[in-house]
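Follow-up to my post from last week.
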Amino acid sequence: MTEFMRYISGYLTSDKTPGGAGNMFWACVYILLVFAGVSVGVICMNWLERKILAHMQVRLGPMRVGPHGLLQPFADALKLLLKEDIIPAEADLVIFWSAPFIVDLAAFTVFVVVPFGPTHAITDMNIGILFMLGVSSLSVLGIVMAGWASNSHYPLIGALRSSAQMVSYEVAMGLSVVSAILMTSMNDTGTGTLSMIGIVQQQLIQKEWFIFKFFPLGLIAFFIFAVAMVAETNRAPFDLAEAESELTAGFHTEYSGFRWSLFFLAEYGAMMAVSSIAVTLWLGGWLRPFPNLLAGTTWDQIFSYFPGVAFLLLGAICFYNVARMPKHPYFRIQTIGLAVFGVVLALVGLVLFIPAVSVRIQDIFWFSAKVAAFMYLYIWYRGTFPRYRFDQLMRMGWKVLLPLGLGVLILTAGVGLLQIRS
Amino acid sequence: MTDPRSLSPPSLETHVAVRDDTFLDTNELVINMGPQHPATHGVLRVILTELNRIASHQLWLGTHALDIGAITPLFYTFRDREEILKIYEKYCGARLTTHAFRIGGLQYETYNGFEKEVKNFLNFFRPKIGEYEELLTTNRIWLERTRNVGKISGEDCIALGVTGPVLRASGVKWDIRKAQPYANYKNFDFEIPTGQNGDTYDRYLVRMEEMRQSVRIIEQAVDAIPEGPIMAKVPKVMKPAVGEVYHSIEAPKGELGYFIVSDGSTQPYRVRVRPPSFVNLQALDLMCRGQLVADVIAVIGTLDIVLGEVDR
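User reply:
Got it. Predicted complex:
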């Protein structure tokens, strides 16, 4: 028993990821934490997307379940769990049953290598980015299986569309990723890295986020990735797979209840996964803004207040809305609920001011904040853009992004070579 | 006299006002009520029908954009359409099945503050058209989805009997408000927007411009509402002369005509409605040739049909 305790506490002094240190116990803990974190993220996204989209569209969004609809995601989850589970009579049972799990598996396995901080990752593979791209493209398999097993027209067309789309955009995505990886080799030794943690550390060493590297090459590569990642996750304006005016709901038309919610979970999980790739590759991962320009302990101190301030601000917004709540007794429970929520947020914010906590949580905070910015972009796209037609989508992928990606890759390689030589 | 509403095709939209309008116009021609119309009636009719045109185009824009995948314009247009419906509700009590036109004039006096509310609406609405356009007009995806989609030439439009914005977007400058002015339209200054290419994008632009022109017409009309009665003296029983008559107006979707045959009795011998949606839908086949399936959605949206009017 003491040996086990020593095994557990042994990791605490390590400066590696649990996977890297070979500590199974902490790896399992991290897996659970990441899984829970991503699930909570999906729940938050559910509420945020409906709320933000609603406000963009001069609506209120969910307002009834809990204060400002805060409990709506839970109500929805409960509804989906309790719904009748319908499997079409003509469906291929085994494939129909396993398809959502494959999609979910692909979406969540990606997070194994996502670096939330220098040590806050489940493991740090030396082929991290390859693993990420490889696993995330597995979800095509699940989608094709879902479309095929449903044995119905719309799911089949939707599955074909989305698989064709995902495969084509992966090419452009891969090219832009390669140009980012080339940038990692711009150091003294001239060796690049595929490790996710290594990529971020290179951005720290080179004192530049890769989005600004070789301006404007990094920016173009990032742009290609940013477009491709929206297409990759089948979101507006590339949501042809589920274009409701053409295909009802695409590949998950025949799915209902819990199985459908698994697809939902996978969609948002995949969105977060590709956003974290983008953040890691171009936006400096867990690094706080201006790590070099505003270096020094004073700035470190100032930036360490950010997480706490952010949560305090959220709490303050809650209290502002508590004050705006109608005074009618009907709203009493909602008002109290919102106040409690605000208190919880404010307390979290206060806890984050404790130096021991803020040092450990900072990386995770900055990483999540950057991912959250991407998630907001997703919602913004959805509120703004009409939908591409399928041929236009393919043209965009193969005739615009692919040549652009190739050009950026060649130029990056050329510029990098010149700089290393000189 | 048969209740005109029982004759008009089932309607899903706010076009009953316009429909009543035509039917009564036709009746008035048969029994020659025309000269006795009070002047107020003509101007109010213009205001009400032009408001209706804006409401119809708003509904079209929202649903058309929704079909192409842009969800936000729908909410914008419905927010602004609500203001028109409020005016209607106050004026005649109905939001959807509005009807105020009667043989010989209008049924209702305008309520207190009608002019002010219409003016408020115009001031509120004028910048909103720009807001709709901001989301779509220069949007790359919108351009790609609508340009060169569902093209139709002016000749084809005329051959198929297509009217309304679809015809005008193909370059034919035909608007019954100008060509055969009814009500008080000849007293107002407005333009007829036309397109050149006859594609979905041109039809979009034409309808957007029509909304602006409607605003312009209402602006002039609100200032020109004459004092006086709204209803002429109408006999209880009307016996029109034997004969037949066709009269049409420019409804938001196209030409809406009523053909009435009178045998001299109190009831028409035959009434035939020429609806714009039904006729315009004929062009679907031609417009979809050589296009992709996803374009059919855009084309149906751009034709601006109401299926309740088609299915009869």
